[in-house]
């Protein structure tokens, strides 16, 4: 999505310059959020998520994995011995799904791509027992998605945290989600660490540290991602849990830029270095980096937001959401409609809108003010 946004931005400024897109995916750029949301509910079909990048007069090289970058000679090499030359280079390689440690079973779907969606959709159509490992962003969405798509299916979630979204949400909200998902027909096994997965005939046998055993027709893992920076190992491009970029999204190497999930930038509002793995960041970063690759000097200073849908619940969030932070909660109806403020040193650094909508800009303004407010004043700061 970052690549598409950059190309769109370049084409608005330069209609004729040559653009080459090299991707290890087999499909042209597509919207990623529907893979765990609206493709399962029927609100979108596969043809709806194509971003139509191919209509922008570009050379597209799909199913090619870049394995080497030579910034000195401005060349890029892929796994099929193809050589590409560039004047400006954007690295938007995103992330690689984290895998379960010490587990080699090859049939696990580490869910991220359109190919993963197609594979899983076919499996869900033909089977009934599904194990979702991970209680975070992807795990919670895909468990809900499968259950809504095929209500008669048996879906189980297994994760080590105390509740769904346990690394993100306050404890009581996280535990509430366990109950909520169970009411929707999803089995929830919190506090469980998967230690082994094996194949038993056509079924997968999952074992946890506590001794529990499960059998599933398919296993989907959503454990987060790590930045895809392997191709930089022989370069001087600076990395630190992502590719380090300045306010113009330039790396420390001339004419090389980075954006999207893979890029680490300094956010002036929060006064800290961030690497953000969400759509809003991908699109806005892509737009800005495209401008700057054409010669402009536009600063990227967006405080991005993200969103999710969990059955009938939904939320939008801005800034840093970490369950370890101090929180102030304001509920109209506990765990069904409200706002959660996340504080660091008494200042708001993140805001969660739980079934509250169209307040993102107010949250950005509140975070930028960097005020220290008493909890009772903070609770009424954003009206809903």
How is this structure best described in words?
- The chain has 384 residues and is an alpha/beta fold.
- The chain has three domains: 2-95 and 226-293, FAD/NAD(P)-binding domain; 109-221, FAD/NAD(P)-binding domain (3-Layer(bba) Sandwich), CATH 3.50.50; 312-379, 2-Layer Sandwich (Enolase-like, domain 1).
- Helices cover 22% and strands 30% of the residues.
- The chain is built from eight helices and 25 strands.
- It has helices at residues 2-13, 38-41, 114-126, 137-149, 171-183, 279-293, 360-369, 375-379; strands at residues 20-22, 59-61, 66-70, 75-78, 83-85, 89-91, 95-97, 109-110, 129-133, 154-158, 186-189, 194-200, 203-208, 213-216, 218-221, 225-227, 243-244, 256-258, 263-267, 272-274, 305-310, 313-319, 326-333, 337-344, 347-354.
- The strands form eight sheets. The chain has a five-stranded parallel β-sheet with strand order 8-15-9-10-11.
- A hairpin with a 2-residue loop joins strand 12 (194-200) and strand 13 (203-208).
- Helix 1 packs parallel to helix 6 (279-293).
- It starts with a helix and ends in a 5-residue tail after the last helix.
- The model has no long low-confidence stretch (mean pLDDT 97).
């Amino acid at each position: 999505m970052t690549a598409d946004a950059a190309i769109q931005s370049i084409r608005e400024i330069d209609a004729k310059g040559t653009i080459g897109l090299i991707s290890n995916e087999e499909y042209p750029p597509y919207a990623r959020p529907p893979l765990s949301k609206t493709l399962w509910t029927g609100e979108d079909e596969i043809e709806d998520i194509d971003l139509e990048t191919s209509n922008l007069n570009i050379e597209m090289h799909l199913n090619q994995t870049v394995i080497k970058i030579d910034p000195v000679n401005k060349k890029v090499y892929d796994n099929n011995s193809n050589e590409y030359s560039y004047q400006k280079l954007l690295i938007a390689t995103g992330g690689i799904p984290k895998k379960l440690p010490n587990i080699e079973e090859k049939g696990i779907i580490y869910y991220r791509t359109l190919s993963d969606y197609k594979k899983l959709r076919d499996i869900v159509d033909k089977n009934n027992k599904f194990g979702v490992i991970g209680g975070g962003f992807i795990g919670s969405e895909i468990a809900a998605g499968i259950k809504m798509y095929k209500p008669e299916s048996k879906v189980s979630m297994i994760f080590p945290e105390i509740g769904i979204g346990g690394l993100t949400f306050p404890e009581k909200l996280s535990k509430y989600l366990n109950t909520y998902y169970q009411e929707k027909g999803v089995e929830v096994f919190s506090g469980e660490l998967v230690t082994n997965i094996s194949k038993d005939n056509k079924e997968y046998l999952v074992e946890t540290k506590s001794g529990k055993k499960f059998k599933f027709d398919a296993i989907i893992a959503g454990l987060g991602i790590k930045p895809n920076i392997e191709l930089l190992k022989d370069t001087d491009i600076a990395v630190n849990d992502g590719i380090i970029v300045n306010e113009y999204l330039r790396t420390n190497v001339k004419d090389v830029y980075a954006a999207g999930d893979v890029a680490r930038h300094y956010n002036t509002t929060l006064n800290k270095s961030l690497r953000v793995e969400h759509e809003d960041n991908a699109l806005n970063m892509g737009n800005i980096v495209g401008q700057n690759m054409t010669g402009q000097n536009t600063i990227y200073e967006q405080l991005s937001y993200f969103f999710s849908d969990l059955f009938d619940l939904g939320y939008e969030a801005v800034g840093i959401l970490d369950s370890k932070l101090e929180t102030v909660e304001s509920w109209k109806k506990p765990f069904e409609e409200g706002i959660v403020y996340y504080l660091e040193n008494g200042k708001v650094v993140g805001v969660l809108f739980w079934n509250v909508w169209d307040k993102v800009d107010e949250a950005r303004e509140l975070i930028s003010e960097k005020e220290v407010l008493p909890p009772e004043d903070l609770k009424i700061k954003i009206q809903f």
